[in-house]
Recover the amino acids of this structure.
C-alpha cells in the first residue's frame, strides 16, 4: 500500500498573528512553524498503517525552501520519503492542482490530509484533489481502518457521526482521535537526515483568487467584572447592555 | 444570470445557517436567487427559503439522494448551476457544505472563498473578506474566475425574514453510478438537541467542572437559555463529554451571540474556537485565568455556587 500524506507548514497554535508591508505580508518574526495539527493526525495514522499493513509513506508539501525543517520533522516521525513542490501555496486551487499532479504520478492507494489547514482554514483542498482525480473524499475522519481494498471510516457530522465505507483509492481529511500524535525519537531524527526529499517544480495553474490585503479583528474592550453574589446584575447586563438575552 | 444557494435541512426545517446563506445571496443583488435542496424534505418547509429572499426552490428528491452523499450532491449542485446559468453559488460553511463546495469548484471551474464574513466589494473586481488563522485574522481576496463559490461563516451575516414563502419545483438530476462509490453504513446523531455549530447561545464547561456527573448544572443553565452545550478539549479527551461538543482550534469553531465558559482556563487553542462569539462570559474561580482577558463579562467564583444561581436568575427573567 502506498500512502501520500499532505502536510501544511503553519504557525504554531500559540502564535500571535501580525502582518507587515501595509498589511500585505504575514509577519514571520518570532513565529515557530509546525506541521498543521490536523495534518499531524493524518501523518500519525499513516505511520500506524505502515506498521500494521506494511505501507510506504510519502509526505508532500507545497511550499518554499523554508518549509524543509517541517518536512524533515515528518520524516523523523516515520515517513519514508518526501516531496516538496517548490512554490508559495497561494490559494487552495493552486495547492490542490499541485497535489493532484504528484498523486497522478505516484498512483497512491490512500491520500491523507488534515481536515483543514490552520492558516487558510478552507477545509477545501481534499475535496478539490479528489474531484481532480475522480476519487471519493471523506472528511473529517475520526477513525480509519483498512481491510483489504476496503476502508471503513467514521466521519464527524453536526451533532454526531456517520459510518462510511469506500474502496481504495480515495482522499481523507483527518482529525482526532484517528491516531495519537507521534513525537520523533532520536533514531527517527537521525534517519530523517538521509531520507530522500525530492523537490519538484510546480505545474502551471490559472489564477483563481488573489490576496489584496490582511486585517486583524478590532481590539477587544475591557472585561466587565460582576460580583459573584450578584448574578442578577450579570443577567441584567446581558439583557440590557449586550442585548443577547 | 442567477445566484444558486445550496440549502441544508435538519429535523424537517431549513437550517438557520442555510437561511443566512439565502439572505446573503439576496443581498448580493446579482440576479434571481434560487435555492437548491437535496434529499428528503417537506415542500412546505422548503418554501420558507422565500422568506429569506429566494424566488424559488429546486428540490432534487431522487430516492438515491436520501443520504448525504457528497459526490452525488456535488454533481447535482454543479448541474443546477449549469442549468440555471448561475454565476455565483452560495452555501453555509458546514461539514457537508465544505465537501460539496470544494468538488463543485473543480467541476465548474469556479473560484472558491470559504469562511466568508461580509458582502463582497464589487467596486473593483469581486473582493470578499474571509476569516483565516482560526478567527485571528481576515483576508480580502479578489476572485478572478468567471464563476464564484462563497461558503458563508455561520452567524456572521444578517438573516432576512421579511419575504414570503416561494414555489418549490422538482429538480430532475442525472446522477451517475460512479457518484455512489461512498457507502454510508450508519448514522448516529443526537436527536432534538440544539446543534452546537448553529447555536445562538453556548454554555461550555472545562476541567474545572471536575467530572461528568456535574454536567447537569450546565445542562440546566443551557436549557433555561435554549443553549447548546460545549466543552474544552481535555473534557472530551477524558470522555466526560462526546467529541462533537469539543470547542477550539482542533474542535468546533462556534460563533454564537453568547458564549458562557465555565471552569475553562482560556488557553489560546480554546480561544481560537470562540473568538468570533459576539459576547463572552467567563466564570472561573481563578482571577488570573487567561480567559478573563478575552471576556466581555466575568465572574470570579466557584462554578458550583454561581451556575445554579445564574440558572435561577434566567428562569426568573423568563417567568
Ligand atoms: C495543538 C493543540 C491543540 C489544542 N486544541 C484545543 C482545542 O481545540 N480546544 C481546547 O479546549 N483545548 C485545546 N488544546 C488544549 C489547551 O491548550 C488547554 O490545555 C485546554 O483548553 C485546557 O482545558 P480546560 O480549560 O478545561 O482545563 P484547565 O486548563 O485545567 O483549566 C481549568 C480551569 O477551571 C478553573 N476551575 C477549577 N475549579 C473551578 C471551580 N470550582 N469553579 C470555577 N472554575 C474552576 C481553573 O481555575 C482553571 O482555570 C490544544 C492544545 C494543543 C497543544
Ligand atoms: N501547502 C500545502 N502543502 C501540502 N498540503 C497542504 C497544503 N495546504 C493544505 N494542505 C493539505 O490540505 C488540507 C486542507 O487544507 P485547507 O483546504 O487549506 O484547509 C490540509 O490539512 C493539508 O493536509
Amino acid at each position: 500500500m502506498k500512502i501520500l500524506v499532505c502536510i501544511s507548514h503553519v504557525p504554531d497554535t500559540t502564535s500571535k498573528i501580525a502582518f507587515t508591508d501595509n498589511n500585505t505580508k504575514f509577519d514571520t518574526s518570532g513565529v515557530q512553524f509546525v506541521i498543521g495539527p490536523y495534518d499531524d493526525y493524518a501523518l500519525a495514522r499513516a505511520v500506524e498503517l505502515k506498521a500494521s499493513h506494511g505501507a510506504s509513506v510519502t509526505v508532500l508539501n507545497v511550499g518554499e525552501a523554508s518549509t524543509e525543517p517541517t518536512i524533515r520533522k515528518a520524516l523523523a516521525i516515520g515517513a519514508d520519503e518526501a516531496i516538496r513542490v517548490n512554490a508559495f501555496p497561494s490559494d487552495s486551487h493552486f495547492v490542490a492542482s499541485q497535489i493532484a499532479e504528484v498523486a497522478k504520478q505516484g498512483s497512491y492507494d490512500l491520500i491523507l490530509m488534515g481536515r483543514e489547514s490552520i492558516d487558510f482554514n478552507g477545509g477545501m483542498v481534499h475535496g478539490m484533489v479528489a474531484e481532480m482525480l475522480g476519487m471519493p473524499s471523506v472528511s473529517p475522519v475520526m477513525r480509519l481502518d483498512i481491510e483489504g481494498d476496503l476502508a471503513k471510516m467514521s466521519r464527524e457530522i453536526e451533532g454526531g457521526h456517520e459510518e462510511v465505507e469506500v474502496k481504495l483509492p480515495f482522499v481523507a481529511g483527518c482529525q482526532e482521535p484517528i491516531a495519537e500524535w507521534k513525537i520523533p525519537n532520536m533514531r527517527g531524527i537521525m534517519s530523517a537526515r538521509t531520507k530522500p526529499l525530492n523537490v519538484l517544480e510546480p505545474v502551471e495553474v490559472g489564477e483563481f483568487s488573489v490576496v489584496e490585503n490582511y486585517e486583524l479583528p478590532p481590539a477587544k474592550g475591557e472585561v466587565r467584572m460582576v460580583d459573584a453574589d450578584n448574578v442578577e446584575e450579570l443577567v441584567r447586563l446581558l439583557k440590557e447592555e449586550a442585548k443577547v438575552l | 444570470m442567477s445566484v444558486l444557494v445550496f440549502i441544508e435541512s435538519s429535523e424537517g426545517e431549513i437550517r438557520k445557517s442555510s437561511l443566512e446563506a439565502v439572505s446573503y445571496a439576496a443581498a448580493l443583488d446579482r440576479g434571481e436567487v434560487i435555492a437548491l435542496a437535496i434529499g428528503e424534505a417537506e415542500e412546505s418547509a422548503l418554501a420558507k427559503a422565500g422568506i429569506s429572499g429566494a424566488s424559488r426552490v429546486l428540490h432534487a428528491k431522487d430516492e438515491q439522494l436520501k443520504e448525504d452523499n457528497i459526490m452525488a450532491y456535488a454533481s447535482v449542485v454543479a448541474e443546477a448551476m449549469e442549468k440555471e446559468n448561475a454565476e455565483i453559488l452560495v452555501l453555509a460553511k458546514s461539514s457537508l457544505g465544505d465537501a460539496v463546495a470544494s468538488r463543485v469548484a473543480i467541476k465548474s471551474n469556479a473560484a472558491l472563498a470559504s469562511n466568508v464574513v461580509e458582502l463582497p466589494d464589487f467596486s473593483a473586481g469581486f473582493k470578499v473578506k474571509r476569516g483565516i488563522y482560526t478567527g485571528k485574522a481576515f483576508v480580502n481576496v479578489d476572485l478572478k474566475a468567471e464563476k464564484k463559490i462563497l461558503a458563508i461563516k455561520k452567524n456572521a451575516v444578517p438573516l432576512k425574514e421579511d419575504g414570503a414563502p416561494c414555489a418549490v419545483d422538482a429538480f430532475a438530476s442525472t446522477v451517475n453510478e460512479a457518484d455512489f462509490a461512498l457507502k454510508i453504513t450508519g448514522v448516529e446523531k443526537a436527536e432534538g438537541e440544539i446543534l452546537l455549530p448553529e447555536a445562538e447561545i453556548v454554555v461550555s464547561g472545562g476541567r474545572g467542572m471536575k467530572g461528568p456527573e456535574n454536567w447537569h448544572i450546565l445542562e440546566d443553565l443551557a436549557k433555561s437559555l435554549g443553549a447548546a452545550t460545549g466543552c474544552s478539549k481535555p473534557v472530551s479527551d477524558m470522555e466526560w463529554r462526546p467529541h462533537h461538543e469539543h470547542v477550539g482550534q482542533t474542535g468546533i469553531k462556534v460563533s454564537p451571540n453568547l458564549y458562557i465558559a465555565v471552569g475553562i482556563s482560556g488557553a489560546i487553542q480554546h480561544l481560537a474556537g470562540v473568538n468570533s462569539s459576539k459576547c463572552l462570559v467567563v466564570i472561573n474561580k481563578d482571577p488570573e485565568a487567561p480567559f478573563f482577558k478575552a471576556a466581555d463579562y466575568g465572574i470570579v467564583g466557584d462554578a458550583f455556587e454561581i451556575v445554579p444561581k445564574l440558572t435561577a436568575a434566567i428562569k426568573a427573567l423568563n417567568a
In short: Chain B touches chain A through 90 residues (CB under 8 Å). Chain B has a mean pLDDT of 94.
